[in-house]
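Example record

Each entry pairs one chain with its bound ligand, zinc ion.
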Amino acid sequence: MSLIKKELLDILACPADKGDLREIENISRLECLKCGRKYPVREGIPVMLLDEAEAPIAEGKCEAEQGKDLKDNM
Ligand SMILES: [Zn+2]
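Structure tokens for the complex follow.
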């Protein structure tokens, strides 16, 4: 049983990078497919706030490299 309606998932996006989200039903989270942040779902309502998001497990340099790429592109 899905917590979130598929139509809702389709219009939601990660506030950090507009990435697509997937539902992780057993822990009531929406995970961004791009950055791996996990957003809580409270009483069926996804909380799409960076402040509320669980950061992805740090894999060392990953995030630093993304930041560097961003700056290089600017
Ligand atoms: Zn994201």
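The chain has a mean pLDDT of 84.
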